[in-house]
């Protein structure tokens, strides 16, 4: 059962067509959207990247869209990444900004080979631009397929990053297996609604699992990327990194665009690598609603902005 009624309400609103039209067209909601999403175009994404880089941060860009069952849509997503990578290179940002890709947006639901081929095209463009790619992780039914595609890509491009989710029971094993030299691994809690057969239902268990997986990554020879806004986990990561003799630069912190921006700057000013996950594109609505559902305070802010326009 969903114990958070506001969360259920927001997720229901996210599926409601008329609410979507109001949110998408209200002039003031554009400002609120802009707090979490860079904008709809490549130029918007590049402009936000430049601003963050000038503030001493690094970036990973996500062209929004997922769960495509249409190969033309998958092709559109690939083309958007190719255009973005070209622009990052041309504007001298490719050493500070990489891309994050959801395989379901490039055809994973249609055919694993199509997703692999599309991901290869994005990796080739990233290599030409002088940057890297991380494969986002989606719901648990896709984990094995995503790790298979990762394995294939890493034969050519060992720098392709993986994502693991501490809410899954399997993840400590994955962390130990992936913590090898040259590997880039993002650890997050996990954002999908998962059954108890595969995931910890309690947040305290998810947090404990996060710490176990963080230890495994820090003990290994790879490059861990700690994606969390959780102040307690950020503190624990600092302690554990020190205990493992990890210097700043041998791991990084990652946070979402618009969430705890002061903390992002504080960590960067301490000498840490901080990477901001920046989503952009026309398909911002579902992403925004998931961020609202995670945090009632954001929703209040959002609804107030809508009502007082
Ligand atoms: P949690 O949600 O438990 O929040 C802990 C604390 O952080 C809060 O109490 C508050 O202090 C602060 N906080 C959190 N959200 C906030 C907000 N919106 N505004 C203000 N403060 C807030 N998931 C996935 O399944 N696959 C993936 O590939 C990725 N990729 C990814 C990349 C990056 C860079 C990040 C940061 C996150 C992801 N995620 C993800 C999402 C992740 O799994 C998770 O859903 C969110 O990061 C929220 O979890 P937290 O660890 O931040 O903690």
From TrEMBL:
GO terms for molecular function: nucleotide binding; proline dehydrogenase activity. It is an enzyme of class 1 (oxidoreductase). Substrate binds at residues 102, 290-291. FAD binds at residues 137, 165, 189-191, 228-229. Transmembrane segments: none annotated. Keywords: FAD, Flavoprotein, Nucleotide-binding, Oxidoreductase, Proline metabolism. Its cofactor is FAD. It catalyses: L-proline + a quinone = (S)-1-pyrroline-5-carboxylate + a quinol + H(+). Pathway: Amino-acid degradation; L-proline degradation into L-glutamate; L-glutamate from L-proline: step 1/2. One of its GO terms (biological process) is L-proline catabolic process to L-glutamate. Residues 49-301 form the Proline dehydrogenase domain. Its EC number is 1.5.5.2. InterPro entries: FAD-linked_oxidoreductase-like, PRODH_bac_arc, Proline_DH_dom, Proline_oxidase. Binds 1 FAD per subunit. PANTHER family: PROLINE DEHYDROGENASE 1, MITOCHONDRIAL (PTHR13914:SF0), PROLINE OXIDASE (PTHR13914). This is proline dehydrogenase.
């Amino acid at each position: 059962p969903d114990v958070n009624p506001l969360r259920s309400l927001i997720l229901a609103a996210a599926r409601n067509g008329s609410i979507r039209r109001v949110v998408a067209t209200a002039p003031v909601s554009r400002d609120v959207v802009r707090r979490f999403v860079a904008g709809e175009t490549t130029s918007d994404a590049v402009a936000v990247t430049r601003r963050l880089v000038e503030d001493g941060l690094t970036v990973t860009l996500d062209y929004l869209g997922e769960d495509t069952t249409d190969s033309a849509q998958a092709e559109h997503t690939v083309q958007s990444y190719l255009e973005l990578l070209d622009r990052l290179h041309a504007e001298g940002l490719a050493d500070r900004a990489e891309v994050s890709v959801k395989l379901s947006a490039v055809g994973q639901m249609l055919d694993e080979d199509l997703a692999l081929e599309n991901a290869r095209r994005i990796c080739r463009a990233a290599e030409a631009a002088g940057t890297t790619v991380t494969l986002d992780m989606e719901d648990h039914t896709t984990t094995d397929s995503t790790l298979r595609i990762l394995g294939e890509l890493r034969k050519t491009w060992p720098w392709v990053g993986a994502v693991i989710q501490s809410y899954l029971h399997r993840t400590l094993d994955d962390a130990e297996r992936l913590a090898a030299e040259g590997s880039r691994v993002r650890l997050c809690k996990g954002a999908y609604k998962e059954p108890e057969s595969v995931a910890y239902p309690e947040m305290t268990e998810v947090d404990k699992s996060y710490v176990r997986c963080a230890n495994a990554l820090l003990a290994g020879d790879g490059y861990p990327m700690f994606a969390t806004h959780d102040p307690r986990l950020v503190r624990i990561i600092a302690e554990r990194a020190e205990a493992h003799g990890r210097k700043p630069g041998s791991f990084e912190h990652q946070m979402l665009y618009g969430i705890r921006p002061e903390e992002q700057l504080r960590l960067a000013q301490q000498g840490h690598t901080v990477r901001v996950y920046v989503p952009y594109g026309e398909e911002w609505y579902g992403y925004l609603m998931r961020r609202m559902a995670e945090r009632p305070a954001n929703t209040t802010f959002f609804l107030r902005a809508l009502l007082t326009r």
